[in-house]
Amino acid sequence: MKQINGTPINIESDILGRITLKGKSIFNRKDEIFVKADATSVPFGYSAVITNSETVNGDKPCVGNVQTLDEFNEGDVVLINKQGEIVFLYEIKSMHNAIFATERCNHRCIMCPQPPVAEEEDKTPFNLKLISLIDKNTLEVGITGGEPTLIGDKLFELIRQIQKYQPKAGISLLTNGVKFADKEYALKLALCKHRDLQIDVPIFSDIADEHNRIVGAKTFYKTVQGLYNLALFHQRIGLRIVVHKQTYKRLPQLADYIYHNFPFVSQVAFLQMETTGNANTNLDELWIDPYDYNEELKQAVLLLSNRGICTRIYNAQLCVLPHEIREFAVNAISDWKDTYLPECEGCKLREKCGGLFESNQKHHSRHIKPELKYTPMPQPSEGDETISAFLKNNLTKDILCHYHDPVIFDIPCGYGRHLKWLSKLGYGVSGVDLDPKAMHYLEEWLKKDGIENVHLLREDIDALPSVNCCDIMINVHLYSHEIMQKLSSMVKTNGLFVMETPEIHGENGVELPKQGEVKQYLISQGFELLEYSESSSHNGIVSVKTIAKKMA
Are residues 400 and 527 in the same domain? Predict the structure, then answer.
């Protein structure tokens, strides 16, 4: 975690508080920590003061001689200890905030960046207070450890506390999944009824003994049973695979195993290893240049993506990845431990690249080098019928069957890949686009195949009806805030708005939303987010995939 050091003054025990730069009313100072330049005393009522002054009068808690006051933001939450260390537990401008439920774990993974402890005091009361201090408009919160399920039913207290104090926030629960082999425990999680919860579970091999050796426990089949129990209760599940010397060779086989055994997962993420903690201790057994496993990674990623499973690559450098899979790369490194190398200077991909872990500066690919000319991904050719994996995986017959003879729009429809898909499923659909070449291609297709359930409209979006005219709106790879407003307004009550923006690294990524922009807007317009994911980049823009139901 990000940490700033100063000189402790009158600090006798740890202080948890929320940062204010502006100051608060005397009636609202109890949990506030005032950051003030050149302070000479601690104003009444604050938990503490942080200042650049070396000495402060009085007997109230203070941290002096802090020369980086510009590192603090209104609404950050920090912990001050007796040594004068200021630890940031929540940063209001970050999308990578997490609650550490426990430092204990029932696995001993050979590459764990944060080795577990054997014993500790219960962190739940502390975490409940921490959550109460976090900004109510926060959009993403992680729950991690250690292994969060080791705190038992107190995990559900944390989830409900987030529901109460951060009602807009999605939750990512990082767990090894073993506890969910207990069906009753999985049901308790489902009964929390959080509208935007994803359970992220690591799996490292399609061979039980290999997975067990890597995690240091014979739990493979319990993890598998946990996944099935979570799916039974309709929980959203992600799988995570850390790639290193002992996992890379069977990535294609693992991907195939996932497709055949866990087709219900919402996402599969391949992660480059962080070389700290146990990973650093076992470096000789684990380290491989990421460039040297590109072929296995490419096969695995494309196998899953082509079969309709949302696939991501975390913590990778774009210049090291093959062009064919760069579009799957996501910046997932926490802000406080993210860095770039001197050789990244001048690279045209830098703003789109996630960089690398601070701890990986000594151990990184020898192939990191600046790309001085940006080479975009090739675009689909005329008539390309590759269906959006997100749509195919999430807009299923189980969802569509709730709509009798639905009015469906696909805007823009391009060369009709989604029109053809929905037509084959037996649904009538209207495609709207201004591209004359695409319209001509589709008209010829309708005549040739005698298609009667597809209607084409060559029209500008602004000329379309404003409100309540369709049951399902599909908007893939064309984004602006105005287009989102227009198309979502056309959805009837109880209808679906299905949107997939261009990928950050794709050719179409000219305009993309800022972090949280889409989620905030849709919620404000009365939509419930059935599926939602963001892939972030360093300059604050994101690609978004969502299925939202209009409730009002």
Answer: yes
Task: Write the secondary structure of 266-286 as one string of H (helix), E (strand) and C (coil).
Answer: CEEEEEECCCCCHHHHCHHHH
35-40: Cβ within 8 A, 24+ apart = 35/69, 35/72, 37/69
Number of domains in the chain: 3
Pairing of strands 48-50, 62-64: parallel
Domain containing 206 — which CATH number? 3.20.20.70
**Please, what sign has the CA dihedral across residues 446, 447, 448, 452?**
positive
Quick one: how far is CA 71 from the chain centroid? 24
- The pTM assigned to this predicted structure is 0.73
258 belongs to a structural domain? no
Domain that holds residue 479: 389-550
Residues 79 and 109 in one domain: no
Q: Are residues 32 and 146 in the same domain?
A: no
The tokens for 23 are: 């100051």
Q: Is residue 36 included in any domain, yes or no?
A: yes
Domain boundary among 219, 234, 249: 234
501 secondary structure, DSSP code: P
Task: Note whether 42 and 58 are within 8 A (CB).
Answer: yes
Q: What is the pLDDT of residues 469-512, one digit of tens each?
A: 899 999 998 899 999 999 999 999 999 999 999 876 544 445 88
DSSP string, 85-128: EEEEEE-TT-S--EEE--S--S---TT-SSPPPS-----HHHHH
Give the H or E element holding residue 500.
strand 491-500
Q: Mark whether 79 and 107 lie in a shared domain.
A: no
The span from the CA of 412 to the CA of 460, in Å, is 10
Q: Is residue 384 assigned to a domain? A: no
Q: Is 441 exposed, middle or buried, given 0-12, 13-18 or 19+ CB atoms closer than 10 A?
A: middle
Does residue 343 sit within a domain?
no
> With a cut of 50, which residues of the chain have pLDDT below it?
377-384, 506-509
Q: CB of 171 within 8 A of CB of 134?
A: no
Q: Which H or E run contains 456?
A: strand 454-457
pLDDT for 382: 42
Residue 116 contacts residue 105 (beta carbons within 8 Å): yes
What region does 443 belong to: left with phi over 0, alpha with psi -120 to 50, or beta?
alpha
Q: How many CB atoms lie within 10 A of CB 212?
A: 18
